[in-house]
Each structure stands twice: as C-alpha cells, then as structure tokens.
Design a protein that fits this description.
The complex is a heterodimer of chains A (115) and B (133). Chain A has 115 residues and is mainly α. Chain A is 61% helix and 0% strand. The chains are: A mainly alpha (115), B mainly alpha (133).
C-alpha cells in the first residue's frame, strides 16, 4: 500500500508515469501499453470490418457462425482481440479505481502529484 | 477548478483534456465490451434472439450509438498512441502540442467519413426526400 502503487500522471501526455519500485505495477503499466498497441490494430480493424465492409443490416447469426467462426483465421483474430480487450480493459479499470482510492485530496492542488 | 466534477479535476492544458476524454472513453468502451462479450453468446445459445440484437445494431438508434462508440474508440486509440509515443521517446515531448492537434486532425479525417458510412440510412432518405439523392 506504499507510494509505489500510486497512479502518478504525466502533466504532458495525461498518461500514467512509468511506475518505479514495484515490479507488479511496472508489469501492469507494460501490459496496458503492449495490449494498447495491439488493440490499435485489432479493435479498429474489427470495428471497420463490421461497420464499413459488412453493414450490420447484412449480418445474421448464421453469417457469424458459418462465415466468421468457421475460419481459423477469424477465430484466431477474435480470440486475440478478446484476450487483449480483457487484459487492457480490466487493468485500465483497475488503474482508474486505484487513482480514486489513493488520491490524497480532491482539491485541484492535489493533482498531478510528484511529477 | 475545484468546482469541476471529480472526473475532470486535473491540472494542465491539453494534458487535462486528453486525460479526461481518455478516461471517459475508456470507461464507455469497457461498458460496451462487457455487453458485447455477453450478447455474442447468443450466436450459439439463441441465434434467433441474436438476429434481433443485430436488427437493433442496424436500426437508426443503434447506428447513432455505434457512431458514438466508434468516436470513443478512435479517440482512445489515437490518444493512447500519443501517450505511448511521448512515453517511449522523451524527445517527442518537444512536439507534444503538434502530436495532440495531429491526433485530432486524424480523428476528423477518419471519423467524419466513417460516421457518414454508418449513418447512411439516416442521411440518405433525408437527401432523397429533398430530391437530391
């Protein structure tokens, strides 16, 4: 519960500053970034394919079961997307919760801290 | 500043707006992803019901929500990349303002045509009713 798992924000990027002194927090920070870059490609591709190439009006359960999930490539794509989304999403929400739990005061002078 | 809602209390200029939008869009996308992971089970469990879910995705209110989702996704993706670039190459901090405005240029250039494609069933009948389609 020491300072080392506090969420310190960069005033410039608005992102979390690379945590020091805690291997676990560093790992969380790294996973968020690696899965983030992966999702930049996978999530935007998924959204684009489902809305620009295939319109929702053209899709049915049958289409998803027979055309998408019947192909190993798209099964793999969806699995990779799901895994990255789960890690990125839950660790992201964890960071938000930690930030609100550990923030010392709500006054504007309390943020950003120690950077 | 102290009168701002909790979510927006962060000092700085572009950094503060970027942070508040990033957090809002992130939480919004997370909520949708949870819903989407659950609804996709219907493809196997109850295909007929999932067809009805898809009919909502294809409806006008559905498309308006998807446009908001797409905007949140695109912003979160571009801003996340901006954060990673500044994190990994400290020399890029010199250009942090250019990176910020650049990401908004990409947001508009990619987002507006994207929104127009998703919202085609909204504006196309409108155009046709005016005799322009």
């Amino acid at each position: 519960m020491a300072d080392q798992d506090q969420v310190v924000l960069s005033p410039l990027s608005g992102g979390r500053v690379r945590p020091r002194g805690s291997r676990r927090e560093l790992l969380v920070w790294l996973i968020i970034r690696v899965s983030g870059v992966t999702l930049f490609v996978l999530a935007l591709a998924h959204f684009s394919i489902m809305h620009f190439i295939w319109d929702p009006a053209e899709q049915t359960s049958e289409f998803i079961a027979n055309e998408r999930w019947n192909q190993i490539v798209w099964r793999g794509f969806d699995w990779l997307l799901l895994m990255n989304v789960l890690f990125h999403g839950f660790l992201g929400v964890r960071t938000v919760v930690l930030d609100y739990v550990r923030r010392p005061r709500w006054s504007s002078s309390s943020a950003p801290r120690s950077c | 500043m102290s009168r701002l809602p909790i979510l927006f209390r962060y000092r700085g200029r572009e950094g503060m707006v970027a942070w508040a939008f990033h957090r809002l869009s992130g939480l919004g996308i997370f909520a949708f992803v949870v819903l989407h992971v659950l609804d996709i089970y219907l493809v196997g469990g109850n295909p007929a019901l999932y067809d009805e879910v898809l009919a909502f995705y294809a409806s006008i209110p559905g498309r308006l929500l998807e446009t908001v989702l797409g905007a949140a996704l695109l912003y979160h993706a571009l801003n996340g990349l901006r954060i990673i670039i500044i994190d990994l190459w400290p020399r890029m901090t010199v250009y942090h303002r250019a990176l910020w405005w650049g990401s908004w240029v990409i947001f508009v250039v990619v987002g507006v045509p994207g929104a127009l494609i998703i919202l085609r069933p909204v504006w196309l009948p409108l155009l046709q009713s005016l005799g322009l389609g």
